[in-house]
Specification:
eight-stranded mixed β-sheet; two-stranded antiparallel sheet
């Protein structure tokens, strides 16, 4: 048996058509819902990025022990357990927190791994001269913000953007190993995490007459912008979700082309949601964790049961993924 997990970061359940959204264009998520079990009561455990990933590896609540952290020497890691039992585990990702202090020691638990660079101020391209930055709202006015505008110059087309490169690597792995058994592939996209930077063709899906300052990266604070600015940011997020949907479709196409549905599990998930002005807040760090953050999407195809196009009300969390895969 084989397994593929497609993991997005900050993917809002309430912005997906299978969960009732009627305006975000995400036809491949609808296609996925018809080929899988849709879970209606999936919730976060620990937050945000690395705490959720520690749960993904260990099947234990991270918040009971510490906050943002690497894997500990005493942690049992799901991909490493698989690796130690003859299952090749491969990670492809553009989530740069895997490769910095506080997030390291995760990627080394896989048999092999690949990464794409450039997301959210990833210290990637080096330029002494300050980049040209338009008048803007939001954004972390820091070294991170400056670096992000340096990076953007090097990924102006969809083909050069980290999300596309990440899925390219995942699809290369599938093509190479489609006739082999006993592997686990984790395709992990940083998107639709902020900043909501995407190709113009996805922005055109959401016509917007907004003419104010550049706004695709909200600060983690009270949402005190104008209604027009808030709606513009929601459109920017939706455009990035539509790009995620396009790359999800490429995985579904590969499942069709290579008849992987017969013997390959598919999990599509996220770590948490994101407030887009709901409850008068941006982002994900305000407590209590409202359902826009805590109630998350989850889709699973299991070839051993063959059940598809159905929904489950079972209470599930990120800690359940490791034991399911094992």
């Amino acid at each position: 048996m084989r397994a593929i997990m497609v993991m997005f970061d900050s993917l809002n359940r309430h912005m997906l058509p299978p969960y009732g959204c009627d305006w975000v264009k995400a036809s491949n998520f609808e296609r996925l819902a018809g080929k899988s079990i849709v879970f209606d009561n999936s919730y976060v455990g620990s937050m945000p990025c690395m705490p959720a990933r520690r749960e993904l590896h260990t099947g234990r609540y991270n918040f009971l022990h510490r906050s943002w952290s690497p894997l500990e020497p005493f942690d049992d890691s799901m991909p490493e357990i698989l690796k130690d039992n003859g299952i090749l585990t491969h990670l492809v990702t553009d989530h740069y927190h895997y490769f910095e202090d506080g997030g390291a020691t995760y990627h080394t638990r896989y048999s092999s791994w690949e990464s794409a660079r450039g997301q959210e101020g990833d210290p990637w391209k080096g330029e002494v001269r300050d980049p040209e930055i338009p008048e803007y709202l939001g954004g972390r006015k820091s070294v991170l913000w400056r670096q992000d505008w340096v990076n953007r110059k090097y990924m102006q087309t969809e083909e050069l953007q980290p999300q596309t490169l990440t899925f390219n690597m995942g699809l290369d792995f599938i093509r190479t190993n489609r006739n082999e058994d006993n592997w686990f592939l984790q395709i992990e996209a940083f998107d639709p995490h902020e900043p909501f930077f995407t190709d113009e063709k996805y922005k055109k899906l959401y016509p917007d007459d907004y003419s104010g300052p550049h706004f695709d990266w909200p600060n983690y604070k009270v949402a005190d912008e104008t209604p027009e600015q808030k709606q513009h940011l929601r459109y920017e997020y939706a455009a990035l979700v539509s790009m995620c949907d396009r790359n999800l479709g490429r995985v579904l196409d590969a499942m069709d082309e290579y008849d992987l549905w017969s013997d390959t599990m598919l999990i599509v998930n996220t770590d948490h949601g994101f407030l887009l002005g709901e409850h008068n807040w941006w982002a994900k760090c305000v407590q209590p964790f409202y359902n826009e953050i805590a109630h998350i999407p989850l889709f699973i195809w299991d070839p051993r049961t063959g059940e598809m196009g159905e929904r489950r009300r079972s209470l599930v969390q990120t800690i359940d993924i490791a034991p399911t895969l094992l």
